[in-house]
Amino acid sequence: MKIFFKLGWFFKKERKRYLVGVTFLALTSIVNLVPPRILGLMADQLELGHISWQEYGMLILAIILAALLLYGFRYFWRRQIWGGSAELELQLRAKLFAHFMEMDRTFYQRHRTGDLMAHATNDISAVQEVAGEGVLTLVDSLIMSVSTMVAMIVFVDWRLTVVALIPLPFLAWGAWKLGDQLHDAFDQSQAAFSRLNNKTQESVSGIKVLKTFGQGKEDTAAFQQMTAETININKRVFKWDSLFDPLGTLLIGLTYTITIIYGGLLVSNQVLSIGQLVSFIAYIGNMVWPMFAIGYLFNILERGSASYDRVEKLLDEQPAITDQHANPQLDAAAINGDLSFHIKSFAYPDEPQIPVLHGVDFTLKTGQTLGLVGKVGAGKTTIIQLLLREFDQYEGQITLNGHDIREIPLNVLLRAISYVPQDNYLFSTSIQKNIAFSKVNSAEDAVVAAAKKSDLHNDILQMPGGYNTLVGENGVSLSGGQKQRMSIARALLKQSQLLILDDALSAVDARTEQAILQSLRQERAGKTTMIATHRLTSVMKADLILVLKDGQIVERGTHEQLLAQQGWYADMWQRQELEEKVGE
Ligand SMILES: Nc1ncnc2c1ncn2[C@@H]1O[C@H](COP(=O)(O)OP(=O)(O)OP(=O)(O)O)[C@@H](O)[C@H]1O
């Protein structure tokens, strides 16, 4: 029952809807008492043998009228209560999705995609059932059982009612015991479902890798094992359910037996008429559903409660990156490309004892280009991530136009930056929409211009539907180089103060790279650009090049200055030049 309190905020908000729904539900239960009473009256009249056709017709008419009323009442409560549960589903889903959007990347490192999907689907459905089926079952069974009991006492006999309903408390006891076990079992079952979801998601996403490594059989076996484990956990739920259902049947049977023995005795002693006994037996029929409903209700409520706890736990997680220190006065006009970066030390939150950056200091003026080079794992992407505010807990300060980036509202900061990451993501939609994603409602001309600047236009024209070709999961596959250039087109369309390319040209050939860099230089004149790369030709024209090693700047200068220093850069330059020549 706790779940009704947990969902108090929702029922309060939707109280009008639920009041109307519950009223019609109560009317339904009360009208349900009429047919058994009429049956009893008919039986009495038949026994006495003096029922007229007219009386008979009136009674049948009353039953038809009751049936029609029941139809109308059921329609109204269904509309209200099912509508309420759909509303809860909508609100919870919207809340969860907004939360997902707000969370930073550490949240996505803690929770896997399949797990989050399980929360957004299975758990929310279980909670939604509480507001629909749960409310219905609780109210209906309560009103129906109480009103039936009153009808049994008023229209038939209080002694028969007390004796016949003796088995009921045992059922309540069974349901209470069941509830205890179910909460725990459902919690484990939902967690197992999350794990299974994760496994499915990972296997489907990684299907190409699985197949190329010939791991299909092994993965299928691992999946089967996980499914078996999930089913075993679910069996605990079935076990408790299976123990309860036969108990209900047994106790109902007992009620009928008691009624026939004791009710028969009362009829033969002329305390009751045959008609009253017929009504009573029909009333027991009305009690069957509420009796079973207890177990069913506990099932819905415990399941909903376990799922709601899981959803709440997720919603309670706070993003580490917030606008807590933001100055709302700072808007896009306050930001330019003057960047200063002073990081004394930074470590990733999951490995706080290992500093990844130390003593990284540099400044860039609007319009300048920065090159970040260095070995794999040197810290290039980490520098970019700090600028994008993916992590905040560093010692030092990063400023844009003199404002600490933590004081710039996050949406203003991110709008001022175009970022081309190492791994590209394509949405399942057209090429046009994939490019225009960075600036929705862009004119077609602007999209084409961005594609031309990133040397993608001719490739697109050769695709079956041109700019309308579908890409992503449901569409054609693009080559690695095409994906990278699409990502660059996206970033260029945004025309922001700062453009960051993180190893964004690694999959294109040297000639294409130079063509793109050339158009970038024209496009980005007067704006700041950062290029992290392994290919030194990408940064040779940069105003400042930083060579990173183990999170520290080991060399800095222009291309010519670095060549003159005869260090890692000069060495790498020679090697890459040689490789190029050998390649040719
Ligand atoms: N999320 C993370 N949590 C913990 N450590 C991380 C995380 N991301 C990166 N690292 C570590 O930080 C160091 C710097 O990584 P980073 O990705 O910045 O290097 P990089 O120079 O961009 O490398 P690459 O050229 O391969 O892209 C590496 O040792 C890496 O293992």
UniProtKB/TrEMBL annotation:
The keyword Glycoprotein is assigned to this record:
no
- Give this protein's Gene Ontology molecular function annotations: ATP binding
Q: Which residues form a coiled coil?
A: none
Q: Which UniProt keywords apply?
A: ATP-binding, Membrane, Nucleotide-binding, Transmembrane, Transmembrane helix
- The record places domain ABC transmembrane type-1 at 19-303
Can you name this protein? ABC transporter ATP-binding protein
Q: Where in the cell is it found?
A: Cell membrane
A family per Pfam: ABC_tran
